[in-house]
Write a structure and sequence with these properties.
Elements (H helix, E strand, L loop, with lengths): L7 H12 L10 H10 L16 H12 L5
Length: 72
């Protein structure tokens, strides 16, 4: 679990949200992540709140995301 905003992974996500590097986009939220998966977008990384696993829909999304070949 990442708890610090100074974590390098957190910094990469925040930079992606601000700077929008070419070819990358930040997808935020359950619905948008589901739509991105359905559309065939390639995920290079993902992060989530522990709260996501508390809902059935969130658990399903996490199962799908964890099967993807992603990493920072």
């Amino acid at each position: 679990m990442i708890t610090s905003r100074s974590n390098p992974q957190v910094k990469q996500f925040r930079a992606a949200a601000r700077q929008r590097p070419e070819g990358l986009c930040l997808v935020e939220g359950t619905r948008l992540a589901e739509e991105a998966l359905r559309s065939g977008l390639t995920f290079t990384a993902f992060a989530h709140s522990p709260r996501l696993a508390k809902a059935e829909r969130g658990r399903g999304l996490l199962e799908t995301l964890h099967r993807l070949p992603v990493g920072i």
